[in-house]
Design a protein that fits this description.
Elements lengths: L9 E3 L19 E3 L14 H20 L2 H11 L6 H15 L3 E8 L3 E7 L5 E8 L7 E7 L18 H11 L4 E8 L2 E8 L15 E2 L4 H14 L9 H4 L7 H4 L3 H5 L15 H6 L5 H14 L14 H15 L3 H10 L7 E3 L12 E4 L2 E4 L9 H9 L7 E3 L1 H15 L8 H7 L3 E2 L7 E2 L4 E5 L2 E9 L5 E7 L4 E7 L9 H13 L4
Helix pairs in contact: 1-2, 2-3, 5-11, 5-12, 10-11, 14-15
């Protein structure tokens, strides 16, 4: 398996991170991989050669320890050289996962180094370069706070700039797009019921066509809360329950005994132990679905393949971000309704909420929309993956993982309206769903022991310094990066999307969300 920037997402490796994984990554996974709190103070720059050497030596030691693949040596390194904010066993588990999938690693060179982070260009076992961003504590004896693995073009990038002094939404979008080298960025927010939105930039790098304010962007894994919302709708209709088991929901489907009593709630929370399916090596899609073209049949074959494999964990044993989870859920929805998941999403969610600039399935996309981009040795290049080529495996992959967010494009205003519906439910107001249903969908479980981040039924719940707790999700197909955040206490919903992958850390959308929230949803 390769670190696949087409599916770049954030993997919570040793502490706080994003909602997705490598080659999904992210979340997955595809990857930006985060091993702790990812925020640093960009004003802290290395003052001396000694401190620079100490910081780079620590980063090199981290890579060397990964290459041992020895749990005892990794545990000793964590105890000696990492902060205590994240449990040792959590860090160990994630380090082992990364090195087993992609190691050994080799440091090619060091890039940007400050008192708070070291960036290193690192080659994985396939010879592909990645950027390791090692966040550290200041001082002569630094400790590792977090490690992110992201695209190679980030090795010499400066630390993220604070945008807390922004004055206009359009100015904020322009500044972030410029700093992250994004061809276009769209931001929308609803504050006390008033919508404000902006878009800056071009559909395709090197061309002059500007992105329109209502044009749709790929939302990636934000498709997961869309899927869980439909599950909530079927629960209210009496067709499903939160504790419906897979055996009940998929009658007649062969499955290993370990899957039979898994509940829909466990699947929505990524705590069921299903395979993660964060990336698909060449030939696997064709092996699974063969010559099938009917979407329900394609997903049926895929779900049977998932359920024929071994579980990766016992129910509720641990959080494991999974695209397969939401593929299973989407198939359950279409079996209950007797229509393809794509049609269900359009008729049961997009239409009732008036989301007129939202699409699922590449055949339905409008021609006037932004293209995706990926970083390479010569800068960004245009790249449209799932469903937008003549590659039939790509089209079938879109269908297989539609429930996880593949092939879904929405305008930022539509995505804000979706977020508003959930926010009103969190505030106790019945609407598209009952407030009690929304409360259950947003009932989070800590991703890891001792972690502050929680994951609910398609929703992450997290905090950041200086701003209120929020509910949200991020997403990426490797060519776009999207972020959605809901601040129920401040009656605020924010959406931000760029049409480039190869994530920066923090993502452009995350930077926009924290900047806006610092003004309108500050911590009390």
């Amino acid at each position: 398996m390769r670190l696949n920037h087409r599916k770049l997402k954030t993997l919570n490796l040793l502490g706080l991170g994003g909602f997705a994984l490598c080659s999904m990554v992210s979340q997955a996974a595809p990857t930006t991989i985060v091993l702790g709190n990812r925020h640093s103070d960009p004003s802290l720059f290395v003052k001396t050669a000694d401190s620079r050497e100490a910081a780079q030596k620590l980063a090199k030691g981290f890579v060397d320890t990964l290459n041992t693949k020895d749990p005892a040596k990794m545990r000793a390194f964590i105890l000696s050289h990492c902060t205590t904010a994240t449990p040792v066993e959590t860090r160990l588990q994630r380090m082992m996962s990364v090195t087993n999938q992609f190691g050994p690693f080799k440091v090619v060179r060091f890039g940007t180094t400050t008192d708070s982070e070291v960036r290193a260009l690192v080659a994985d076992r396939n010879g592909d370069n990645q950027t390791f961003i090692v966040r550290i504590t200041p001082g002569a004896d630094p400790k590792i706070v977090s490690v992110s693995i992201t695209s190679p073009d980030q090795v010499d990038a400066p630390p993220a700039v604070s945008h807390s002094n922004w004055t206009t939404l359009s100015g904020l979008a322009t500044d972030i797009a410029k700093e992250t080298r994004s061809p276009a960025m769209a931001i929308a927010m609803s504050r006390n019921g008033k919508l404000e939105q902006t878009v800056t930039g071009v559909r395709e790098l090197g061309k002059n066509d500007k992105v329109g304010v209502d044009e749709p962007f790929s939302i990636g894994s934000i498709g997961k809360p869309l899927c869980s919302t439909l599950i909530g709708k079927l629960i209210e209709a009496g067709m499903l329950r939160f504790d419906t088991t897979l055996k009940e929901a998929l009658p007649g489907y062969p499955m290993k005994p370990a899957y039979e009593n898994l509940t829909l709630e466990q699947v929505m929370q990524h705590r069921a132990g299903l395979p993660q399916d964060l990336g698909f090596p060449p030939g696997v899609v064709q092996r699974i679905v063969g010559d099938s073209t009917d979407p329900i049949e394609i997903r049926s074959k895929y779900i049977k393949d998932i359920l024929s494999r071994d579980v990766i964990a016992k129910p509720n044993e641990r959080f494991a971000y999974s695209n397969a989870d939401y593929a299973v859920l989407s198939h359950i929805i279409e079996l209950k309704l007797g229509i393809p998941y794509e049609e269900a999403l359009r008729t049961l969610l997009f239409q009732p909420l008036g989301l007129n600039h939202s699409y699922i399935g590449s055949a339905t996309f409008p021609k006037e929309r932004p293209s995706g981009h990926v970083p390479g040795p010569n800068g960004l290049t245009v790249r449209n993956y799932i469903g937008l080529t003549d590659n039939q495996s790509s089209n079938k992959l879109e269908t297989m993982v539609a429930g996880a967010g593949a092939g879904i494009y929405m305008s930022v205003a539509d995505l804000v309206r979706f977020g508003e519906m959930h926010m009103k439910g969190l505030q106790g107001e019945d609407g598209y769903l009952k407030a009690s249903t929304i409360a259950r969908l947003h009932q989070g479980v800590h991703e890891d022991p001792g972690a502050t981040r929680e994951y609910a039924c398609g929703w992450g719940i997290q905090t950041s310094p200086g701003i209120q707790q929020w509910h949200g999700h991020n997403g990426s197909d490797g060519t776009f990066v999207s972020d959605l955040a809901i601040f129920p206490k401040s009656n605020l919903v924010i959406v931000a999307i760029v049409n480039r992958g190869g994530q920066t850390d923090p993502s452009p959308g995350f930077q926009a969300i924290t900047a806006i929230a610092s003004k309108y949803a500050p911590a009390k």
